[in-house]
């Protein structure tokens, strides 16, 4: 017996999925947990254990201590670079191929969906592999070698920072509009591996539910969204999603 066959997938969900015209999926850090990427709110390890991620992922933290924040992201960028996509990411690539319309929205900055082969991923919180400048948002692929940490923008001389969305910053408008439109027009909305605490992403499944979509949560732990979900599949995404795909194939 494989791990995925131990997961119970309700028949009604399989029927809904087969009948769906547009499936939207929102993912969070939990989908990358089985790739060895720590979730956002999970305790940090080693040197970073003493810091609260919510205190580091802010413009205020960067202004206060840009070197600390830059080095935190450099550590995470390296960790993500060593990670590889897991069966949860792969199952979403397969799901996209078997439904008429599919929108994948992610809060993750790790690029693992794209590396698994997902296309047109709607990235709400940016990409940790990209760098931009603090003052003017110039996207900067390369900068001159120097001992400065963080380095400075070769265009305007302001500090460089990761191209991610910190607390209190606006999400990229086009990505958010696409995500809202998908939530409002889909028949099935999956919310996978997210604590459903961070706005505006956390409201997307509720918008979908208001418009009559079936909402499915995949998470080993309950979240504030669980009581609104039509189906709560309790387990790790790397097992639940392959099990769901197995059921679709028969
Ligand atoms: C598994 C698993 C496995 C484990 N399989 N699952 C309305 C009300 C109140 C506050 C606000 C509001 N509107 C806006 C705000 C302020 C703020 C906010 O939401 N604050 C809340 C904390 C209260 N939002 C913002 O500031 C946003 N900007 C904005 O709205 O601008 C306009 C505005 C500003 C201010 C006021 C009003 C309007 C920007 C949010 C940006 C979030 N950025 C971060 C950092 C990105 C860069 C980085 O990575 O460093 O994005 S924060 C962090 O949280 C990161 C994540 O993408 C995001 C979500 O976390 P996620 O993915 O859910 O991870 P975890 O760790 O929380 O949960 C993991 C889950 O996986 C758990 O449930 C596990 O059980 C599960 N899991 N293993 C499946 N194997």
Q: State the order of secondary-structure elements, H for helix, E for strand.
A: HEHHHHEHEEEHEHEEH
Bound molecule kinds, no repeats: ligand BJW
Q: Identify low-pLDDT runs.
A: 1-5
> Which outline best applies?
elongated
Mean pLDDT: 95
Structural class by helix and strand composition: alpha/beta
Strand order of the largest sheet: 3-2-1-6-7-8
State the share of residues found in helices, binned by percent.
25-40%
Main beta sheet: 6 strands, parallel
Radius of gyration: 19 Å
Number of strands: 8
Q: Please count the helical segments.
A: 9
Cα(first) to Cα(last) distance is 17 Å
What share of residues are in beta strands? 15-25%
Task: Throw out a few tags for this protein.
250 residues, 6-stranded parallel beta sheet, two-stranded antiparallel ribbon, 8 strands, 16% strand, binds ligand BJW
């Amino acid at each position: 017996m494989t791990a995925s066959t131990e997961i119970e997938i309700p028949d009604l969900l399989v029927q809904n999925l087969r009948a769906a015209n547009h499936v939207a999926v929102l993912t969070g850090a939990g989908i990358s947990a089985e790739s060895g990427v720590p979730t956002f709110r999970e305790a940090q390890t080693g040197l970073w254990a003493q810091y609260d991620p919510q205190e580091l992922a802010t413009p205020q933290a960067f202004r206060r201590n840009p070197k600390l924040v830059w080095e935190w992201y450099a550590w995470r960028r390296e960790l993500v670079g060593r990670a590889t996509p897991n069966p949860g990411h792969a199952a979403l690539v397969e799901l996209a191929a078997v439904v008429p319309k599919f929108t994948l929205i992610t809060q993750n900055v790790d690029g693992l969906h794209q590396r698994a082969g997902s296309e047109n991923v709607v990235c709400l919180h940016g990409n940790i592999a990209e760098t931009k400048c603090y003052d003017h948002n110039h996207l900067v692929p390369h900068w001159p070698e120097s001992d400065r940490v963080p380095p400075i923008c070769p265009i305007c001389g302001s500090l460089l920072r990761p191209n991610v969305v910190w607390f209190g910053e606006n999400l990229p408008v086009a990505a958010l509009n696409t995500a809202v439109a998908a939530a409002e027009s889909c028949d099935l909305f999956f919310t996978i591996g997210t604590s459903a605490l961070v706005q505006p992403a956390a409201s997307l499944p509720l918008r979908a539910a208001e418009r009559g979509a079936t909402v499915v949560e995949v998470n080993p732990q309950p979240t504030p969204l669980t009581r609104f979900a039509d189906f709560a599949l309790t387990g790790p995404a790397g097992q639940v999603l392959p099990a769901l795909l197995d059921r679709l194939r028969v």
